[in-house]
Each structure stands twice: as structure tokens, then as C-alpha cells.
Amino acid sequence: MSLFWRIFLLNAAVYVTAVLLLIVAPVTVSTPVVLTEALVLIAGLVAMLIANAILLRVGLAPLQRLTRVMTTIDLLRPAPRPVADGHAGISDLISAFNAMLDRLEAERAASAARALSAQEAERRRIAQELHDEIGQTLTAVLLELKRVADHAPEPVRTELHQVQETTRSSLDEIRRIARRLRPGVLEELGLVSALKALAREFSTTGLTIEHRFDPHLPELGDEVELVLYRVAQEGLTNAARHASATRVELGLRYRPGMALLTISDDGRGLRGAPEGAGIRGMRERALLIGAELTLGTGPLGGTEVRLRVPIRNGSG
How far is residue 135 CA from its own chain's centroid? Predict the structure, then answer.
């Protein structure tokens, strides 16, 4: 039965019941209306309204639950679907909403995968150009500066040496940026070595990083390892730039059916701040591999990022 006919018949039942009560009951309406009769009619009207409200509340309760889900749903935080209960019209509406959510999540995952794939390709291209073009140019400049400094008089030689040091620092910075854009160590030596190199890199920014990695990690796959690396990279970046942290614990452990990545800092915590582009990017990457990303207060008093990656049949 459709929602229209259900509401119509509920109201009709209330009105028919009220009319039958008036017919059966020894109640008449005088002209002018007697106070007792007016009180009886008002009481009957109130009873009708209450009965109608209760019946409608029960009948439309599934719609209210659906409305709450619709106002709080977030495609980056998958949640259980609302149960398609109620009668035909309401049940069909909830089923259609669940199907729409499934379609939207699939489309978002596909578009996010394409966007992140293009992003990684662009990062590799920029890193390659930084290394091949700018890196080689600065190396040539360093060699030329050394040649000129060897034949320059003493006051000019000192200044040229200072320029050499500045150029060398710039070259080191460009190489560091290239490594962050394209983690070659991840492809060559694996995830654990890449995370250790990442921890050493952030240690130069003033952070004290303690890392604990499970030595018996199963084969996770290239895509899963890249997601784990990027989430760890973003978590350490947030701790260094935004959390005012001085100490970070980085961990990667294996649990039955799951790999768990944690980044905990002793910074100022979330404090109800809205999620920025970095955190939403981590959530999108987590969804690509079916992982679950949560943020909360960690054991050090600051923010803790936890990424749970399901492992099936011994691989990610």
C-alpha cells in the first residue's frame, strides 16, 4: 500500500471511529450549544488529534530515521545503511536511498582513484624534472663556482665559497623535495625502509620520532604500500606544521586479518577543528584500499591517526 493511502486510511479510521461514537453515545448538540456538550465535543476532538498524531508518528518513524541519516551521511566515512523497514512506500524509499549511496560511493571511489593516480604520475614527473634538470644545472653551477674560486683572489674567494654553500644547500633541498614527491626508496627497498627514511627526514625538523615496525609484515601490494606511506607522510607533516608537537610515535603492526598504521604526537590535539584538505585526502586514500581511518586523542596527549588495512588470504 502506498504512503498516500496509508495516511488517508489512518485519518479515515480516526474520523469514522469518532462519528460512530457520536452516533452511539447519547450526546446531542443544542442550539445554542450547552457548556457540557461543548466540553464533550472538544474532548472528542482532542482525542481524535492525539490518536491521529500517534498513528502518523508510528507510520512515519522510518522516514524520520532516514532524514537523520541523510543529514549526517559522509561519503568519506562509510556507515551502516539504514534498514529498509516500514511498509511499501517507505521501504521502497529507503531501499532507493541505499542504492543511491552505493552508486555515489562507487563513483566517488573511481573518480578519486583516477585523481590520485594522476597526482602520483604528476609527482613522479616533477620529481624527475627536479632531479634531471634543476639538479644537474645546480651541480654544474657548483663546479663552475669551484673553478672560479680556485683562481680568484682571497677576498673574492671567500665570498664565492659562501655562494657555493648556499647553492649546495639549495641542491640538497631540491633533492629532498624530489624524494618526498617520488619515494624511490619505497619502490627499491620496500615499505619499512621507506618509513624509516621518512622518519629520519622529519627528525631534522626538530621532531623526536620513535618508530616500531613489525618485522613479520605480509605482502601488502604496491597500492596498499603507497597509501600507507602517503598517510604516514601526511600525518608527520601535520604533526610538524600544525600540532606544535615535539615527539611522535610511528608504528606499523600486523594483527590477524589487519595491518595497523599509527601516528601519535604530543601536540595540541584536534580541539574540534574542522578537517582540512590533508585529512580528507588521507580518508580518500584509505577508501581506495578498503581501509578505515580514525582520528582521536593518542597516548601522548595529542592527535593519533590510525589506519586499519584489511588483509585477506595473507595479502593486502
Answer: 36
Domain ranges for the chain? 124-181, 184-310
Residues 6+ apart with CB under 8 A from 293: 231, 282, 283, 286, 305, 306, 307, 308
155-164 pLDDT, tens digit each: 788 888 888 8
* Residues with Cβ within 8 Å of residue 24, at least 6 apart in sequence: none
Radius of gyration of the chain (CA): 33
How much of the chain is in helix, strand and coil states, percent to nearest 5? 65, 15, 25
- CB-based contact 259:253 (threshold 8 Å): yes
* Separation CA 146–CA 39 (nearest Å): 107
Q: Quick check: bond before 32 cis, omega within 30? A: yes
Multiple choice CATH, 184-310, 3.30.565.10, 3.40.50.10190, 2.60.40.10, 3.30.2270.10: 3.30.565.10
Lookup result for grid cell 618509513: 195
Is the pTM higher than 0.85? The answer reads no
**pLDDT value of residue 307:** 93
Interatomic CA distance for residues 275 and 242, integer angstroms = 12
d(CA 260, CA 304) in angstroms, rounded, equals 12
Q: What is the dihedral of CA 106, 296, 230, 277, to 10 degrees?
A: 70
- Contacts of 212-218 with C-beta under 8 Å, sequence gap 24+, read 212/249, 212/250, 212/251, 212/252, 212/253, 213/251, 213/252, 213/253, 214/252, 214/253, 214/254, 216/254, 217/191, 217/192, 217/252, 217/254, 217/259, 218/254, 218/259, 218/311, 218/314, 218/315, 218/316
Q: Which three cell numbers stand for residue 167?
A: 647553492
Highest mean pLDDT among 18-22, 33-37, 88-92, 127-131: 127-131
Instruction: Report yes or no: 296 and 268 within 8 Å, Cβ to Cβ.
Output: no
